[in-house]
């Protein structure tokens, strides 16, 4: 039956030249282009077309072309079927014979069913290498690199998606990327010529884990199937190469990453030919530290010329090498990468409430403890806001797990937890787990006992951390480790882990801290507990972190690689981890930690260090606040704070000192604090709150474009009694945050400006916003654009505005309130006493809704500007607006851009203007008008059509 089908199909095919003929006439082309004879021999022998002797004869020839000639002789002599199978192999292993594709098309080769039924083994070097890479990555990412050697976790058991946001070239939020599988699609592309997907985020947001997840998805074969090779690099590797190192790209890939088992040349040739099949991941661009002479970078880039590895990195990223390959680069937020190389920008914002719940379920499998943790998170927003940063969440959960197993929840009972607290906790957990310090298995030891017992360990691990910081070193070879007397047992505690990929660099035992923030913590701990550390040493990082614009520029590794070859000193030096050292110093030398440290460091030394730090902090806070730019703004005296202010607030908060808080509050000397685009997270709101809580006057706070989410809103609770302006636009706030705002703002009723543009508030949250509008008698401006309000939400807000006698400016741009919502707004407009500015742009309002609004405006004497841009208003709506214009004598600007008004509607509006001398402009740009017909509306100076 099958044979008959085959025959019938063959009968229908067009008559072709014989396969023997094709092989014979293309002999020279085949000899030149076939670079892999092994695959052919393997398959021809497998199906009995070649005998073992045939294969042996072929292999006797030493050059590739002679082997191919011999194969061709044999194939030809064996006739039609063997020739057909031979050509079929060439077609079915495109990785090995890609340069024969045009030839196969030219001869219109199509194998018969019979030949297609014969298997073809794909063991060409490209496929074998791709399989090897997948296998290596699969094994590797099965586990997150162990934090303690005894504890490795399956990636899928611990990874949950965090918030991934697409960012525009102008650094604006373009919406979320819901799933990693869409990483390379067209959504969110900001530059078609760029090849690098730039993933950035603050410390511990999960950049490294995202890369691991990506590798895992590829290696499992479910996603990114067009990628054959994935090379992952950690940028800190590049710091380990000597100044004089010169290698080729091929070496970098095969020697320092993964080596093909067969024919590396052929694999490399394939990659150069098909760069789009190669993906590079470069993790931690901010961690590069290199001291070779930048001026020696040769401008020419060739895939065969040896050069310094950092140059190879820069040439790969900029597309000078392997143009067309895909690149994923990660870095901390503050690091700048030139726009022209970036294809997409993705910002990691940490865990949302849902992500956090998902992570909790993964982490705590036991229902009872899972519930307990969820309850704890709900009750304590200080914990929740720390947990929105995945690294801190992991540390807190890890500690929670430990103390739970010891039935000791004391550590978690405090309502206020600082970052220093959680790093002390994880240190305690690891020290307790160690047999070195802890001999009474099962019993729990107090924190101070643990630290007292483990002082030597803390000192030696701390010394290593400090030594690394001094040299901008994050990976330590065995000599470095032994030089600070870290014992084998200390190494096993879990603070340090072995670094596998450095073995290729000739060093079999390199180590790094499990996270860079832990290295910062240990550096601070060392500076505090080491008796010999002077005050100058203790405080030196404060001077290195003083804010200057120049420093910010110099901190970009790229500025050095690409353009600024003239920078003196270490251009790669990144000071984020130095900021963390200062923060931990403030925490460790704070009053509440003295009890813990008194047994580890001599009280007189501790006293001296506390005093020195206090003075330095006072000085730094004062001079920082003094240097901030100030300007009058509306009725306020505005201070424009920058990211450095957030670091200052974090440090102050770590001290937990009222006195320092008061000093900072006093030094601000302004009543409008602008903190937009400062990279503030939800837990930073706790720090901001700590400082501003000491502020006695009422003040305005602008936190637009940060990452504060609902937890951040909760952290601001202590400030709401004094806040007259709160601007929280573009901050991932949901209905939960809206509820908190409602509960707080109506308690004090001092708010005049509420900015919530571009958040995630739905109709449910609209009820809370409506109540705020109704119940706060001083509220004038409310910005609610680009939330998720539909008809229902629009109606709540419209009704609330009707009741308010104070609101004057309402922004609803980019919601979907439709005609029903427009009706509620129409009711609000009618006879409203105070509303002067209203935007209902981009809200799906049709002529019906437009009609309501126009009619209501006939009875309004307050509104001056109305935006109805990007709705669905037609000529019929224009007629209603025309009637309104004849009556209304207050409205000055009517924005009707991008609607469906034609020349007729424009004409009616133009005629109506003859009865109105107040209206200054009606904007009709983007409507379907046919211009150039010299219609009167075109001549009307108050109608804008172009
Ligand atoms: N998506 C996630 N799901 C679960 N856990 C996560 C996730 N992201 C991060 N973590 C936890 O946080 C830890 C730190 O994350 P990671 O090292 O990826 O941060 P990072 O952004 O690379 O930090 P840095 O910039 O300091 O290098 C992880 O080892 C893991 O425990």
Automatic annotation (TrEMBL):
Kindly indicate whether the keyword Transferase belongs to this entry: no
Enumerate the InterPro entries for this protein.
Answer: CARD (IPR001315), DEATH-like_dom_sf (IPR011029), Leu-rich_rpt (IPR001611), LRR_dom_sf (IPR032675), NACHT_NTPase (IPR007111), NLR (IPR051261), NLRP_HD2 (IPR041267), NOD1/2_WH (IPR041075)
Q: Where is the NACHT domain?
A: 195-333
Instruction: Describe its membrane topology.
Output: Lipid-anchor
Top-level taxonomic group? Eukaryota
The record's section on Pfam families has:
CARD (PF00619), LRR_6 (PF13516), NACHT (PF05729), NLRC4_HD2 (PF17776), WHD_NOD2 (PF17779)
Q: What are the GO BP annotations of this UniProt entry? A: innate immune response; regulation of apoptotic process
Instruction: Provide the alphabetized UniProt keywords.
Output: ATP-binding, Cell membrane, Cytoplasm, Immunity, Innate immunity, Leucine-rich repeat, Lipoprotein, Membrane, Nucleotide-binding, Palmitate, Repeat, Ubl conjugation
The entry lists its GO molecular-function terms as:
ATP binding
Chief place where the protein resides: membrane
N-terminal signal peptide:
none
CARD domain spans which residues? 15-91
Q: Name one GO cellular component term.
A: cytoplasm
Q: Where in the cell is it found?
A: Basolateral cell membrane; Cell membrane; Cytoplasm
Give the protein family: Belongs to the NOD1-NOD2 family.
**Name of the protein:** Nucleotide-binding oligomerization domain-containing protein 1
Question: What is the originating organism of this protein?
Answer: Xenopus laevis (African clawed frog)
């Amino acid at each position: 039956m099958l044979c008959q089908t085959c025959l019938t199909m063959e009968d229908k095919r067009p008559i072709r030249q014989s396969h023997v003929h094709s092989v014979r006439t293309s002999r020279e082309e085949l000899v030149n282009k076939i670079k892999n004879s092994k695959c052919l021999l393997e398959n021809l022998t497998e199906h009995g077309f070649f005998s073992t002797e045939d294969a042996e004869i072929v292999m006797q020839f030493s050059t590739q072309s002679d082997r191919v000639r011999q194969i061709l002789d044999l194939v030809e002599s064996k006739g039609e079927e063997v020739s057909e199978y031979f050509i079929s192999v060439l077609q079915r292993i495109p990785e090995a014979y890609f340069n024969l594709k045009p030839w196969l098309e030219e001869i219109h080769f199509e194998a018969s069913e019979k030949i297609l039924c014969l298997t073809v083994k794909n063991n060409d070097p490209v496929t074998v290498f791709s399989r090897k890479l997948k296998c290596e990555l699969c094994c590797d990412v099965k586990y997150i690199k162990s934090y303690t050697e005894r504890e490795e976790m399956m990636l899928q058991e611990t990874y949950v998606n965090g918030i991934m946001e697409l960012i525009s070239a102008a650094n604006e939020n373009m919406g979320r990327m819901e799933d990693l599988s869409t990483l390379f699609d067209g959504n969110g592309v900001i530059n078609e010529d760029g090849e690098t997907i730039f993933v950035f985020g603050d410390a511990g947001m999960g950049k490294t884990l995202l890369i691991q997840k990506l590798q895992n998805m590829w290696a499992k074969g479910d996603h990114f199937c067009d990628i054959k090779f994935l090379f992952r690099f950690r940028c800190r590797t590049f710091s380990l190469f000597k100044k004089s190192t010169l290698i080729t790209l091929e070496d970098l890939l095969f020697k320092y990453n993964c080596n093909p088992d067969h024919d590396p040349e052929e694999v490399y040739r394939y990659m150069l030919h098909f760069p789009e099949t190669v993906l590079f991941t470069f993790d931690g661009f901010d961690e590069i530290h290199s001291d070779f002479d930048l001026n020696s970078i040769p401008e020419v880039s060739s895939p065969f010329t040896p050069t310094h590895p950092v140059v190879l990195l820069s040439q790969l990223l900029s597309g000078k090498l392997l143009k067309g390959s895909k690149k994923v680069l990660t870095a901390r937020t503050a690091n700048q990468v030139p726009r022209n190389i970036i294809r997409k920008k993705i910002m990691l914002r940490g865990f949302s409430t849902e992500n956090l719940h998902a992570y909790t379920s993964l982490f705590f499998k036991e229902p009872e403890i899972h519930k307990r943790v969820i309850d704890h998170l709900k009750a304590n927003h200080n914990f929740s806001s720390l947990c929105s940063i995945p690294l801190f969440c992991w540390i807190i959960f890890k500690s929670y797990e430990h103390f739970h197993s010891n039935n000791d929840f004391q550590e978690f009972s405090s309502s206020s937890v600082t970052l220093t607290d959680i790093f002390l906790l994880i240190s305690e957990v690891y020290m307790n787990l160690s047999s070195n310090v802890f001999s009474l298995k099962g019993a729990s030891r107090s924190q101070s006992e643990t630290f007292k017992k483990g002082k030597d360990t803390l000192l030696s691990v701390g010394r290593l951390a400090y030594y690394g910081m001094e040299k901008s070193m994050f990976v330590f070879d065995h000599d470095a480790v032994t030089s600070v007397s870290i014992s084998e047992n200390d190494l096993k505690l879990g603070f340090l882990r072995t670094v596998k990929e450095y073995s290729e660099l000739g060093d079999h035992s390199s180590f790094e801290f499990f996270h860079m923030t832990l290295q910062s913590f240990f550096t601070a701990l060392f500076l505090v507990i080491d008796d010999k550390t002077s005050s100058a040493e203790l405080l030196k990082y404060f001077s290195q972190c003083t804010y200057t614009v120049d420093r910010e520029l110099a901190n970009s590794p790229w500025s050095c690689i690409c353009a600024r070859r003239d920078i003196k000193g270490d251009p790669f030096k990144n000071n984020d981890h130095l900021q963390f050292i200062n923060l931990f110093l403030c925490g460790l030398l704070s009053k509440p930690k003295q009890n813990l440290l008194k047994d580890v460091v001599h009280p007189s030394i501790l006293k001296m260090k506390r005093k020195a730090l206090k003075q330095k902090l006072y000085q730094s806070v004062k001079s920082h606040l003094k240097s901030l730019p100030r300007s009058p703004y509306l009725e306020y005296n505005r201070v424009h704070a920058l990211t450095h202010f957030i670091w200052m607030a974090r440090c102050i908060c770590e001290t937990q000192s009222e006195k320092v808080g008061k000093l900072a509050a006093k030094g601000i000397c302004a009543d409008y604090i602008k903190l937009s685009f400062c990279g503030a997270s939800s837990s930073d709101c706790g720090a901001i709150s700590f400082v501003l809580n000491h502020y006695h006057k009422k003040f305005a706070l602008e936190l637009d474009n940060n990452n504060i989410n609902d937890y951040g809103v909760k952290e601001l609770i202590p400030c709401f009694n004094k806040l007259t302006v709160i601007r929280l636009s573009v901050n991932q706030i949901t209905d939960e945050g809206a509820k908190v705002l409602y509960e707080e703002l109506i308690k004090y009723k001092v708010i005049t400006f509420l900015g919530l543009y571009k958040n995630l508030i739905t109709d449910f949250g609209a009820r809370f916003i409506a109540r705020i509008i109704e119940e706060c008698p001083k509220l004038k401006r409310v910005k609610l654009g680009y939330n998720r309000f539909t008809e229902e939400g629009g109606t709540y807000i419209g009704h609330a505005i009707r009741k308010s006698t104070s609101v004057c400016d309402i922004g609803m741009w980019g919601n979907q309130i439709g005609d029903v919502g427009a009706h509620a707004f129409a009711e609000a407009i009618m006879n409203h006493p105070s509303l002067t500015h209203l935007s209902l742009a981009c809200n799906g309002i049709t002529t019906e809704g437009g009609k309501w609004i126009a009619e209501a405006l006939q009875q309004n004497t307050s509104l001056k500007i109305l935006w109805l841009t990007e709705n669905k208003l037609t000529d019929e709506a224009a007629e209603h607006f025309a009637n309104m214009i004849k009556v209304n004598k207050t409205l000055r600007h009517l924005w009707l851009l991008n609607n469906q008004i034609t020349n007729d509607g424009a004409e009616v509006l133009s005629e109506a203007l003859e009865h109105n001398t107040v209206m200054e402009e009606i904007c009709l740009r983007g409507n379907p008008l046919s211009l150039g017909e010299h219609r009167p509306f075109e001549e009307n100076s108050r109608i804008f059509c172009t």
